[in-house]
Design brief:
Strand order of the largest sheet: 1-2-3
Structural class: alpha/beta
Helix content: 25-40%
Number of helices: 3
Number of strands: 3
Strand content: 15-25%
Distance between the termini: 45 Å
Largest sheet: 3 strands, parallel
Order of helices and strands: HEHEHE
Low-confidence stretches: none
Shape: globular
């Protein structure tokens, strides 16, 4: 019964934009950051001062998303960095072993 109830009435989130601590000095790789939830996550981490790599196949979509984030958000006192990271997992032979 408890699981069903929490599906209909989820608890408030523990971590929000209002209480996110500084992410300065931390690095994040976000796949799918050009739209949707990934875009919002990139914006949130950028505002908190983190270095965010927006990973994806389309460089033009990623640069449009980066411009969008920087244009719609007020300039934070200590902004992070937003960079594009090309990532294509279609051909696994192009991936180097770690």
């Amino acid at each position: 019964m408890g699981a069903t109830f929490s599906q209909f009435f989820p608890p408030p989130p523990a971590l929000t934009e209002a209480n996110l601590p500084s992410q300065k000095g931390k690095v994040f790789i976000v796949t799918g950051g050009s739209s949707g939830v990934g875009l919002e996550l990139c914006a949130l981490l950028y505002q908190a001062g983190g270095t965010v790599y927006l990973a994806g196949r389309s460089e033009s979509n990623a640069h449009a998303a980066i411009s969008n984030i920087k244009a719609r958000r007020p300039a934070p006192s200590s902004p992070g960095e937003l960079d594009f990271l090309f990532l294509s997992l279609e051909d696994l032979t192009t991936i180097r072993p770690a």
